[in-house]
Write a structure and sequence with these properties.
Layout: H1 30-56, H2 61-84, H3 90-112, H4 133-152, H5 154-165
Helix pairs in contact: 1-2, 1-4, 2-3, 3-4
């Protein structure tokens, strides 16, 4: 008989709304949007850099190489956010900060040293060619991750406090 307290995705009133169902699937949520955007940007940046490197590698090797690095970063971010949705947040935290740092450094260098970028990379000018999504994506990911950690960690923290407050015995 189905659990009458179960919500979307099979989570019970006692369980988390993000808990996996028996099939291992997760309900819809912000992480799904992030995962979709990371998959899209993995393909977009990967295709862009592949074509550019194959056809014009000598024109702007730094910019094209950085676009390839961005594609790898997006692929790693996709994987890390999928893991973070299941409660394993450490990798996502590191990768999102690395990605944001990369976007800010490349974006700044492309403005300060435009000669280094005769053609744009995905992260040039903070991702202006992609509607600034490259700079917004890791910020959105970090905000979601903060929410995810706060939502999933209180029970662990409460358990640790209870253990700490117990008299030795």
């Amino acid at each position: 008989m189905p659990d009458p307290t179960a919500g979307r995705g099979g989570a019970t009133a006692k369980g988390s709304a993000e808990s996996p169902t028996a099939s291992g699937a997760f309900p819809l949520g912000p992480h799904r949007v992030l995962i979709a955007l990371y998959a899209l940007f993995t393909l977009a940046a990967g295709a862009r850099s592949s074509v550019q490197l194959a056809q014009n590698a000598g024109v702007a090797p730094v910019a094209y190489g950085l676009s390839a690095a961005a594609a790898c970063t997006y692929a790693a971010g996709w994987y890390a956010i999928a893991r973070a949705a299941r409660g394993r947040t450490a990798l996502a935290s590191v990768l999102l900060w690395v990605e944001l740092t990369g976007v800010l450094v490349v974006g700044t260098l492309s403005l300060v040293e435009p000669d280094w970028f005769p053609d744009a990379s995905v992260w040039s000018d903070y991702g202006i060619g992609y509607g600034f999504v490259p700079v917004a994506l890791p910020i959105g990911g970090l905000l979601w991750l903060r929410w995810q950690i706060r939502r999933t960690r209180p029970a662990v923290i409460d358990d640790l406090r209870l253990e700490h407050d117990q008299p030795p015995g």
